[in-house]
Amino acid sequence: MLTYPTQSSLTEEIIHNYKMNKTLDTAEICHLLSHKPKEEDQLLFTASRDVTTANVGEMVHLRAIIEFSNVCEADCLYCGIRKSNDNVERFTLPTEQIVQTAVEAMKQYPGVLLQSGEVQSQAFVNRLAEVVKQIKQLALTNSPLKENFRVILSVGELSQNQYKQLREAGADRYLLRIETTNERLFKNIHDRQSSMNERMTCLQNIKDLNMHVGTGVLIGIPGQNLFDLANDVKFFKKIGADMIGMGPLLPAKGTPIGDNYNAQQVLKDIHSENLFDTVKRMISVTRLMNPKANISATTAMEVLNPESGRVEAIQVGSNVVMPVMTPIGDKKKYYLYEGKSNVKSGLDVLKAQITQAGRKYDLTKPGDPVSWVERQK
Ligand code: SAM
C-alpha cells in the first residue's frame, strides 16, 4: 500500500537530510518556516541549537549599542525615524559624548556598535571616522581587550571610499540590513531613491574591505510570504554574512506602514498564526544554513514577547545580544518602533537571560564571527 509521509515525518526527513548534506533547498526551508504542530517545531529548534553549539560554541557575545543620531535622509515607510516623521524630536550627540559613552561601554563590553539614521555627507563621515579613531585609541588604555576591542558601525549606505575611510579609521564590522531580498517588497517599503541592488553593492564593498559583514531582514512586511523568507535565508549564505540580525517589523507611529498596520493581514501573508514563532523559525533555519555566523537576539524580539523574547531567540540559535547604552535622555527619541525604549538591557538583565537560555557569556573576548576568523586563514 502506498503511504504518504505525514507532516511530522516530513519535518523529520528534512532535518535528517540536512544532517547528511548540511544544506536545505527552498522547498525544505519553506516547510520548516511554516506553521506546524509544536512538536515539529521542536525538532527544528533542537537541531539549530545543536548546530550552534557545534559551530560557534556556547558563548553569547555582548556589544553595547550607542544610537548617536536619529537624523535621517531616508524615508523608509516602516521606520519611526524616517525623514518625514515630524513626531520625532531630532538629536545628534556631540563627538565628546559619543566617545565618552564608548569609554564607559568598553569598561564592561568587548565591543561597541555605533548606529544612526542615514546621512551620506562627507562631513558626517569625516566626523564619524574621527570618533572611531578616538575610540580605538582610548581602548588601548581603557578596555581590557586593548587592540582587540571592536568597533561596529551601522549608518546605512555610503560610497566605497567612505567605507574605506571608516575601515582605515579602525572600524572592524559593519551592519547593513538588506531588509528583504524581494525587489517588489523592497520598493514597496522604501522611498524612490533606495534600491536593493545598491544595498547589495554596499554589502559587497564592505566585504571587499575585509570588515566583518552583517546584514538581516524584517519579518512581517505586508505582502511577504514564506518563499520570500526562504530566499532571504539563502541570500545570507550566498554573500557569506558574518553577522545576521533579524526581527519582526513592528508598527511605528507617524509612518505609512505603522499607521495602517494590520497584524492579521501580515500573519495571513506569511501563512503564520504567530509572528514571534515565525521569527524563531527564521533564526533556526538561518542557523542551519549559516552555522558559523553570529546571529543576534534583537530588541524587537523582546518587544514582541516581553516574557521571553531574547531567551527563546538564544535557545534556538542566536549568540549575540546588544545592550543599549544610548544616553537616557535620547533613548526615546531613537524611535524605530513602538515599545523599543521600554526594553530592559542592563548587564544584569542580559546575564540572567543568557543563563536562563542555558548559555554562557564571556566579556573578555571579542567574539569575532567564526566565519570571518576562518576566512583569514
Ligand atoms: N540607517 C542605518 C541603516 O539603514 O542601516 C541604520 C539605522 S536603521 C534605523 C536600523 C534598522 O532598524 C533597520 O535596518 C531596520 O531593519 C530596523 N527598523 C527600522 N524600523 C523598524 C520597525 N518599524 N520595526 C522593526 N525594525 C525596524
How would you explain this protein's 3D organization?
Strands 2, 3, 4, 5, 6, 7, 8 and 9 form an 8-stranded parallel sheet that branches. A 3-stranded parallel sheet has the order 10-1-11, covered by helices on one side. Helix 2 crosses helix 9 (226-239) and helix 5 runs parallel beside helix 6. The chain starts with 6 loop residues before the first helix and ends with a helix. It contains 17 helices and 11 strands. It has a single domain (10-375), classed as TIM Barrel (Alpha-Beta Barrel), CATH 3.20.20.70. The protein has helices spanning 7-21, 26-33, 38-56, 95-108, 122-142, 160-169, 183-189, 196-208, 226-239, 256-259, 263-269, 275-289, 299-304, 309-315, 328-331, 347-356, 370-375; strands at 59-62, 64-69, 111-116, 150-154, 173-175, 212-215, 218-219, 243-248, 294-297, 320-321, 360-361. With 377 residues, it is an alpha/beta fold. Bound molecules: S-adenosylmethionine. S-adenosylmethionine binds next to loops. One of its GO terms (molecular function) is metal ion binding. Keywords: 4Fe-4S, Iron, Iron-sulfur, Metal-binding, S-adenosyl-L-methionine. InterPro entries: Aldolase_TIM, BATS_dom, Elp3/MiaA/NifB-like_rSAM, FeFe-hyd_HydE_rSAM, HydE/PylB-like, rSAM, rSAM_sf.
Topology summary:
Layout: H1 7-21, H2 26-33, H3 38-56, E1 59-62, E2 64-69, H4 95-108, E3 111-116, H5 122-142, E4 150-154, H6 160-169, E5 173-175, H7 183-189, H8 196-208, E6 212-215, E7 218-219, H9 226-239, E8 243-248, H10 256-259, H11 263-269, H12 275-289, E9 294-297, H13 299-304, H14 309-315, E10 320-321, H15 328-331, H16 347-356, E11 360-361, H17 370-375
Parallel strand pairs: 1-10, 1-11, 2-3, 3-4, 4-5, 5-6, 6-8, 7-8, 8-9
Helix pairs in contact: 1-3, 2-9, 3-12, 4-5, 5-6, 9-12
Residues 78-79, 81, 115, 117-118, 154-156, 176-177, 179, 218, 247, 249-250, 252, 300, 336-337 line the site of S-adenosylmethionine.
